[in-house]
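Note to self: keep these together.
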Amino acid sequence: MVLIIIQIILLQVAHRMSMNDFAVLSTGRKMPLVGLGTWKSEAGQVKQAVIWALQSGYRHIDCAPIYGNEPEIGEAFQEIMGPEKGIRREDVFVTSKLWNTKHHPDDVEPSLLKTLKDLKLEYLDLYLIHWPYAFQRGDTSFPRKEDGTLLYDNMDYKLTWAAMEKLVGKGLVRAIGLSNFNSRQIDDILSVASIKPTVLQVESHPYLAQVELLAHCRDRGLVMTAYSPLGSPDRAWKHPEEPVLLEEPAMAALAKKYNKTPAQIIIRWQTQRGVVTIPKSITQSRIKENIQVFDFTLEPEEMNQVTALHRGWRYIVPTITVDGKSVPRDAGHPHYPFNDPY
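Structure:
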């Protein structure tokens, strides 16, 4: 009953946004509801994907240094964006993230400056703390002990947040936010924040609807961004027998009704909830399709039908193999986010 009530409230709140192609941040800045995700887009492919996206009408590109492709994305920006090139910098919303080895306050600004240099930009529209837990400081992205286990750091993310706030004051970023934080950790940040987080980026798709977390963000003035919105079907650790979200009969039926693809139905479901969505693709036709979701509206019962597919399935969980079984890699860290209900 509580879940149904929350769904109804979210639908009412999101209805006003449903025919717009943007969410409004607490800063007043408009954030396009559909962006191009660049995770798993390899060097040699991502530049063209970004160019196709911008040519297709995208005005939101989601990046991160850990993806290993920001320099190539910067080449795309330099080639297609700027005076006399048809696309103004101020019309494109660019997000990047602070990696786990850079949580020490002294490392936050240098890490951002490296990202700006790679992306060939003077500022970011949004900068996120990528994960709430830290790895050992340094330039090795995944520092390890001799036995192969990761070297962690217990840096308090609230201290990291204070350093993030300084970036706003310097004009290096327009807004700051969080990624992969749970509801308790969001409130922990809010309890000390001089500049409140504007966005929470988390895994979300119909199998992980994040209804409670979305309501929590709404109540606190954060916009939610959904990564892996199509269930990340190309992930290397996908089990061959698990259900494929894009092959769900409900998606096929709705796709047929609206003459859309199952992916477009899922993206429309998210955007109609007011959730920013960043599907990844390097295929020109799919990049074009993924943003063509603002010319139809799902009925309330259809929205609930998609939400009801929720199974609590979280796919993007760093794991290790112990005694032949995959277990969460970082679950022992005090800031590991997925031990909490939401």
